[in-house]
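Give me C-alpha cells for this 663-residue protein.
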Amino acid sequence: MPKFLISLRTWLLLILSFLLAASVAFNIYLNVIKTKIAYKASVFITYDIGIKNIFFVFPNNFLLSDITLTPKDTSAQSSTLATSLVTLQMSIWDILWERRLAISTILLDKPQGTSDAWQKFLNDNANYLIALLQELPRADVHLVIKKAHLDPAKGIEPATVPLVVNFDFLLRGENFLGKGAVYSSADPEPLQLNFNGALTSHGLLLNQCTLTSQKTYANFWGDLNSGNIQLKGHAFLNSRSQKQPASFLEKLILRSANPKTSPAAEPSIDIIDIDAKGRMRFPKLQVDRLNFNLNGFPVTAKADILLASPPSWEMTTSLDNAPAGTNRIKNFKQANLNLSGSIANGTVQAQGKLNFLFEKTKEANFPLEKIEMTVPKISFSYDRYRRLAMQFADGQIAISTIKNRYQISFAELTALLNMRPDKLKIIDLTAALYGGNLQGRIWCDVARFPIRITGNATLSDLEANTLAELLVYFSKIHGNLDGKLQVKSHPGFALTGDVLINDGRLENFDFFKWMAETFHIPSLTNVAFATTAAQFWLNAQGNGLTDIEINSLDVGLTGYFNVDKNNLVASKLSLSLSRAVLQESPKFNAILRMFEEDVPSLIFDFQLSGNQEAMNFQWLQSEFKQHIEDRIPNFVERMIDRKINAVLEGKTEEAQQPAPQQP
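Here you go.
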C-alpha cells in the first residue's frame, strides 16, 4: 500500500479520534454545567428549568433529554410541563467565534402538560417570549412540535380524551408559514391548520389562515399593527358532504373512482362576512367590534378578555332575525346575550342574561313579547360519562306576553348534555325549585334550523302556591304538588301537564269566593281538600285547566276552566256542597227543605264566561234542578224555578216582582 494512503488513513483516524475525544469531553463539560445553563435560562421566566442530560451530536445538534418546567410558585406545582427530548440545531462557529446564538431548528418531541399548565405558562411568560422573539436576529428559524399531549384540566374535560398537537413553523427572513393538526383518540379526524404571512416593523400581516377537517372549513386574514387587530374571514361547519363509495356498476361502466356525495346528516352552520376589530395589550384583549352573518342572521358582539391566570371575560352579543329567506323566524325580532366569567381550577364560572324579543302582532297566535333567562351563577364541567355538566343557581326564566307574565324560578338546576355528534341532542335535567324537585329530559333536533325542542319533566313535593308566578291559578292553591310537564317549540310553543295536589286548601278561589259572597257561605273562602287534580295547558291560543277534580269533606268540584288569548273565559263546573255548608246560607235553607235528610249534598252545574276579571255565572240544567222540578206542581213550577234562579244569581225577591204597568 502506498505510503501516502497509509499516512492519509492515519491522519483520518487521528482526526476522528480527536473529534470523538473532543465530543466526549464537550458532552462531559455540558453535563457538568447543565445546572448552570438551566439556571441562566430560567432567570427571566417564572419557571425553574430542569435538564437531565445534554448531548452534542456532530456537527450542529444539541440534544436535551427529559426537560421539565416547574413553577417557581410552590402553590402551583401541578402546572409542571415536561418533554422527553428537545433538539436544537445551531452553528458552533457562531457560538465560539462570533459569540452569537443563532438557532436554526427547534424540535420538541412529545411535550406534555395539562391545558391549565400550558395556559399558565403562556400567561405568565408571554411578555418575555415576545421580547425574546423581537431581539433575535432575523435568521431562518424552524420550529417543530411533534405529538404534544394537551391533557385535560381536571373537571373541565373528560380525563380519557387528551388532545394531541403537531405543529410546524418556518420563519424565512420577514416571511413565515406554518401548519399544524389537532386530534384526539375520541375523534381521530384531525383539525388541520395552515397559515402564512409576514413580519412587519410594528407587528405582522396574516395573508391566510385556514382551519379544515372532515366537516369544517374556515379561512381568515388580517393584520396586527402596534397592538391593533383587524381580522376578516368566513367559516362553514358541517358543510362538507359525507363520502359514499361509487357503485360497482359505475366503476365498471364509467371507469371512475370519483365518490358520490350525499348531504351531511347535521345542518350546515355558515358564518360569513366576519369583520373584527380590536386591541391587544397583553394580557388584555379588547374586541371593539365583531360582526358576522350566521345562516342569514346578522350578529354583532363586543368583548373584553383578560388572558391572565385565571383568564376572564365579559361579552355582549346580539342576533337579529334574518331579513328574508327560509331561515327567517316568524314574529322573532332579536336575541341578546350578556355573559361574563372566568376559568379557575378547571371549571368555567360565569353569570349571564339571555333574552329573546318578539315583534308585536295582531295575528291569532301567542302574543309573545319577551323570553328572558337570568342566572347569576353558572358553571361548566364534565362528568365521568363525558357529558357536559351545566349548573345554574338562583335563576329565573320569564315569558312575557302583551297582557301576562309567566315565570319559573329555580334554586339549583343541572343540565347534562351528551357531546356525541348526533343530530338529536339529549339534555338530562335535575332541579331544586319551589321546595321540591324536577327531573326531566329535553330532545333538541339540531338537524333543523331553528332548532326544534321537545321536553318532558316530572315534578315532586312542590309547594303549589309558589307556582303562582308561572300560572296565576296557583296563587289561590296551597298543598303538596306532584305532576308532569311536556313542552315543545314546534309548530308553536306549547306547555302541557297534569298535577295532583294533596292535603291542601283553596284560599279565596275566584269561583268559591263568588259563591261565598253571593250566598253568605263563609267556609267557601277557605276550602280544605284531600286531593285536587287537574291538567293544564299554555299555548298560542291561551291557557287553562281541564279535568279538574277537587275532593273535600264538604265540597266537590269537577269541570274545566279555559282562558283564551283575549282573556275571555270558557268554563263549565259542577259543584257539590254538603248540607253543613249550605246551612250556613239563609238563602239555601228554603232549597234544603225540599229534600229529605238522607240527601247529604246538592250538586250545582255552572257555566262561566266573559272577561276573566268580570266573569258571568250561569246556573245550568242538572239532575238537582230536575229533581226540584219533579217535586213541585206544574202550576207553580215556573215560579219556583225563578226563585231558585234568583237565589243562585244573587237577586232579591223584590227584584223578581213584575214592574207595575204604565198607565
